[in-house]
Amino acid sequence: MTHANLTVFHPAVFVLLGIPGLEAYHIWLSVPLCFMYITAVLGNSILIVVIITERNLHEPMYFLLSMLAVTDILLSTTTVPKALAIFWLHAHDIAFDACVTQVFFVHVIFVGESAILLAMAFDRFVAICSPLHYATVLTWPVVGRIGLAVVARSFCIIFPVIFLLKRLPFCRTNLIPHSYCEHIGVARLACADITINIWYGFSVPIVMVILDVILIAVSYSLILRAVFRLPSQDARHKALSTCGSHLCVILMFYVPSFFTLLTHRFGHNIPRHVHILLANLYVVVPPMLNPIVYGVKTKQIRERVAHRFFDIRVWCCASPLG
């Protein structure tokens, strides 16, 4: 096809199809998705409020946990409301710039959450392997710089994706077989070479996340070595219990993400609707489970949440309307 006959355009809108092949079940799928989204937002919001209002929780570990809760809310809110609008209202259209913005935030949050988990692993490493130096190593200025580094790294890694998408000409279709916009899914609609998009979009973020996983594994190998050198069984149990919730969150984040990425890259025999369903579950299930895990596993948070609910019940019973 010659250049003169090639109609190149940047579409005003893309059309998100939802979950192709499961259109008849969109309403039924929306019910658990909505429930999980509400649970994720409420659970993480309660976690943030408890950490902010309770002075006993004003420690680096809980500051990083509040960052994790914020990213969980952002991840699910960036994707789920639009998916529910598709399922309930048939609102399939999304503006080109809004689609690119959604791509940016989905990938920034993914890379950022990985960095937060690495920072939390470093916090546990210092707390267990060098407890006497914890207060001098993880000072609030240091923790603040860690938080800024997490944001800056995520932004710098993903920001080029905006330009990689905006440089592409689109001349085929504006139909996206997904419930939200993601980088490679949008790039594949272009009528130009997307090799750079594939290499950058797949390689750079994944390499950074794999590096985080390696550093987390090194941290926990040193932590376990230090724990099993403790003379008291009670001390070992206490040290392991402080890491238990973090390990659960790590597994809930990395196992589904790598499974989704590998099946998307190599699982060509897996139906497309399975890929999209897994992608929707990934952005809502870990955010829903993270506050539950920390609420159950972390004694301080469990006690503070129970205390808050007890105060609310007492206030409700004592009020004239109660």
TrEMBL record:
Topological category with respect to the lipid bilayer: Multi-pass membrane protein
GO cellular component, one term: plasma membrane
Stated family: Belongs to the G-protein coupled receptor 1 family.
Gene: OR52B2
Subcellular location field: Cell membrane; Membrane
Gene Ontology molecular function: G protein-coupled receptor activity; olfactory receptor activity
Residues of the G-protein coupled receptors family 1 profile domain: 43-294
Name under which the protein is recorded: Olfactory receptor
Pfam families for this protein: 7tm_4
Species for this entry: Catagonus wagneri
UniProt keyword terms in alphabetical order: Cell membrane, G-protein coupled receptor, Membrane, Olfaction, Receptor, Sensory transduction, Transducer, Transmembrane, Transmembrane helix
Keyword Transcription regulation included in the entry's annotation: no
Protein function: Odorant receptor. Putative odorant or sperm cell receptor.
Membrane-traversing stretches: 34-52, 64-91, 103-122, 142-165, 206-228, 240-262, 274-294
InterPro entries attached to this UniProt entry: GPCR_Rhodpsn, GPCR_Rhodpsn_7TM, Olfact_rcpt, OR51/52/56-like
Alphabetized CDD domains for the sequence: 7tmA_OR52B-like
